[in-house]
Amino acid sequence: MGVEYAAQLADKDASVRARLAEVVPAAAWTDPFASNETAFRNKAKLVVGGRRGAPVLGILDDSTRVVDLTQCGLYEPGLRDTVTRLPGLVAELGLTPYDVATRNGELKHLLVTHSPDGELMLRFVLRSEGQLGRLRERVPTISDVLPTTRVVTANILPEHKAVLEGDVEFVLSEQDSLPMQVNGIRLHLRPRSFFQTNTAVASGLYRQAQDWLSEHESRTLWDLYCGVGGFALHAMTAHTPPREVVGIEVSAEAVASARRSAQELADRTPLPRNGFHAGDATAYALDNAAPDTVVVNPPRRGIGPALAHWLESERTVERVLYSSCNADSLARDLGEMPSLRPTRARLFDMFPQTRHHEVLVLLERRPAS
Length: 369
Prior knowledge:
By secondary structure, the protein is an alpha/beta fold. The protein has helices at residues 5-19, 77-93, 132-137, 139-145, 199-214, 230-236, 252-266, 281-287, 304-313, 327-335; strands spanning 43-51, 54-60, 66-68, 107-114, 120-126, 149-156, 168-171, 178-182, 185-189, 220-224, 244-249, 273-278, 293-296, 319-324, 340-348, 358-365.
């Protein structure tokens, strides 16, 4: 931060190219996809401190004091307006902020997501279920203060540890998913489903994937680590869609969202045969006949040696589209797949003002010698 954005982007692009230089040829790269340098975040993940009636929302400093982030310039406009209203809402609801030092209180975090249509998902992370009744009764108050709220939930995090949310979630509103319109496709975001934090750059990422995939005719495409189905759904609506698309994701909640989006798309346009399934990506690959195209969008650790070796050895797989948020694990994985040659690569600046990045690489099978 404090560096001119054009210089930030050029430096980040050069750094990622250098880290991948041994596995991605210079000729494969195209210019980076830029973001707005401010007002780009669709999510706010806020620690709640202060006291009952006078909460402070933001981030913990080294002394476990909460630093106010309600005026942060990274929130997109509708989200920023929402966040400024949250302290008053928490005070009106009568919730007691959790104090990290003394381990007293109930409300630990507020997790807010803002959609392109201006709707909101508001998640209250509580220490126990003791305030569920109060929150459920006050959902109309939440709607009065934040009229565009669509989804309200209570997440339960009883443990005292450095995580944002627990494993148990109660939906308190009539709706249980937040529609995210991306390139004319209505993705559905459920409370514990992953979605990129920068909607505009995510849209660019999916369009680029769609364009690169459209250059080849595919019989079957697998989207491994498919999340709510962003890549798979864009593949289905590509200029030359595969005949069959399969999405695999460990989160059953995300799979339910992807199925819903696919059904909505099918109601207004013909789609190829498709299916989304909850399960482990590597296990699915090892147990099923290989497709000709594979999309992978793994967590930071990458796809790992087992899946990389399978992709390398399965000659049926003609191309792989790899979306990565970690150039180091990407470099390691590509090094395990020498038969798959990177032909296209692009940086997407999903996280301006940081050194974090998103990289999309298209790999194509080298002809057998």
